[in-house]
Every structure is written in C-alpha cells, then in structure tokens.
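A sample follows:
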Amino acid sequence: MENRWITNVRLEKGFKKDGNRITGTETEIVHLEIEGGKIKSISEELPTGAFAQYDAGGALLLPSMREMHIHIDKTYYSGPWKACTPLTKGIFTRLEEEKALLPKLLPTAQERAENMIELLIRNGHTHIRTHCNIDPVIGLKNLEATVRALENYKDAITYDIVAFPQHGLLRSDSVWLVREAMKNGATLVGGVDPATVDRHIERSLSAVFDIAAEHDKGIDLHLHDPDTLGAFTFSRLADYTAQAGMQGRVTISHAMALGDLEGDALSSMLAELREQRIDVTTTIPINRPTIPVAEIDRAGVGVSLGHDSITDHWSPFGTGNTIRKLGVLAERFKTIDEFSLNRLLKYATGGVTPLDESGQRVWPMAGDAASMMLVDASCTAEAIARRADIKAVFFNGNEIQNKLLQLQ
C-alpha cells in the first residue's frame, strides 16, 4: 500500500555561517504527503484524523542513489568465498578465465543477480545500470538471466542494461551478438578498449556507433587505457559523438587516462568531453591514480559512481554501499569541510542534492518523484564522512523493504 504520509522527516534547509564561512547545515522536522508516487506537499503540521503514515523518527531524508556501473550477471556474491587468481597477462588473464567460468556460473546467474539487486536496494539505490556480458562463450544467456532478474524488481527500481562485449567487440567477433542483444532487452551499447582489446580504434568505434544508431540507443564504453593512448581514444570518441549527433548520450566508464593527464592536456581533454556532453563514471580506484573528480565536475563534465564488481573473478572487494564510496572519495581528495562534503552527494544521485550551491533548498519539492532514503545522520556532510546507516528506502513513495519481503 502506498504511504500517504511520511512523518517526522529531517530536511536540510540551509547552511550555517560564521561570516562568509560555512560552519554547518541547518535542518528542520517536517511531514511529507505522498500521492501517485510523488511528493504532494511538505508541511510542518500533520492533518487531523486517521491516515496512513510512516514515521521517520527524525531521520535525514536524502534522494535515493543511482548505481551507474555494476556487473550483476557474473558475480560470486551470495555464493562461497573465492579469491582471485593472480594476473599474469593483464586483462587477458581474466578473459581466458571467463571461457570456462561463465558457463559454470550460468545456473545461478539469475539468483545471484537478484541477491545483488537486493543488496543495492538496501544500500539506497533505486536505479541500476548493469553491464552484461555478450560474447561467443555465453551468447545471450547472461542477458536473459539479467532481464528476468531486473524485471522481478521493476516495482522497486528502474534500470539500464549495457550490452557489453567483454572479450572485445571485434576481437571476439561479437558485433552480430550485440545487435541481437539490443533486440532482446539491452538498453545501451557497450564496448571495451578499442585500442588494446580490439586493436583497431576506428573500426571498433564505428561499429559501436552503427549499432547505437540502428536501435536509437545510447553508449557506455569501458575505457581503461592510460595516458596519451586513452586520451586519443577519448578524442576519437568525441569526434564520433559529434558526427552521429549523439551529444548527451555517451558515457565513458573508468576513463583511467583522466587520472594520468595534467595541466593543459587535461583541460583540453575535458573541454572536448564537455562540448559533446560525454559523461564519466568512476569506481574511485585507490590502486592507481584516481580521476580528478572535482576538476572534471568544475569543467562541466558529468561524473557518477559505480561499484563495478562485488566479489567476482576480477576483484574480491566491493560492498555495494555508495555512501561508503563517497566517504572514500572524500578521504582520497582530502575533502573535510562542511560545504565540500555536502556537495559530494550529487555524484551518487544523478546530480540531485537537497541544497544548491548557495544553500537554498532545491529538493524535495512538491511534484518531485518520491524516490528517496532515510539515513541515520544530522546532515549530508555527516552521512558521507561517518558512513551513515540507511534506515529505509522509498521508490515512488513505497517503502521498498516491504516489496523485498513480498518477493522472497
């Protein structure tokens, strides 16, 4: 049943200041009326009489989060512990492993995907962008399992599925398979390292954009290549985006080269991405130079966060907890003041924050979708710095934990 009122909600209403210096965040306790999956009104007073309600108990209300880079189709999550084997040939070690591993994982692929979806929901996400292996080893079978899993949660999340030729679009002769994937549930066209994996930047990018044009879908490419090789690939990607008229519909996942470039080279590269409205998704890696998130943001290039994997043959790490990842981001770049911590939230929510740069409340407002989360914190800055626990998650006004219980 849809909650009619969410009562005793803590909302941010402005910044506390000592002169020009921001020293804290002001909040207030209010009540939200929900109707038709949206916030109908925000009130300091409750109506009289009986009504359906969810008591937030003074918890802080924040917009729900968007997991923008995950692989739910190939995971050890919810299965027995298994560490990774050593890398001997870089990425190609893992590609060789997958030839034997993917068929073994297939019988439990949907179950483990659903367990991961539930983990992400409990951690405050109401949108998931998952990459799904499309290759000659597994064909479209992982995609079929992924679609079934996500459809089982369509009342709790929205989602995108990237048709991801992990073994190389050209290298594994998967162009035709990706085309088939776009007819069978995939919503974005993927690819990986046109230079080092496909060994032909032009042919690889051309094929990706041809498929995207055929199906009128966006693009999300894994680009790990470093330094000038990565930068050259970004530039060619920007050129293809301009030629195809796909501004605002292309994402670079990882974008490792942005962590290697400096000075004019970085500024010039970011200007190219901004002009074509190409955005970037990062996992905030700490085992190599992390892309300069704040500088990318200031340059007008969109940045979002993802977990990539949650314990699989690529990595034994990952929590699915984006609030913790924001805390890692803050520590990685020495973000310690109230204002700067507050601004980090947008990287996890698709740009939505309770306060704007000047401290005016811009969320929630009457008419906004009621997809949000309650956290055990006094303000956004504390939630990020102290890795606050999530008390409840709402999708279109419905408290999702009830939905998860119904699905079990």
Summary: The CA atoms of residues 206 and 240 lie 8 Å apart. The mean pLDDT is 94.
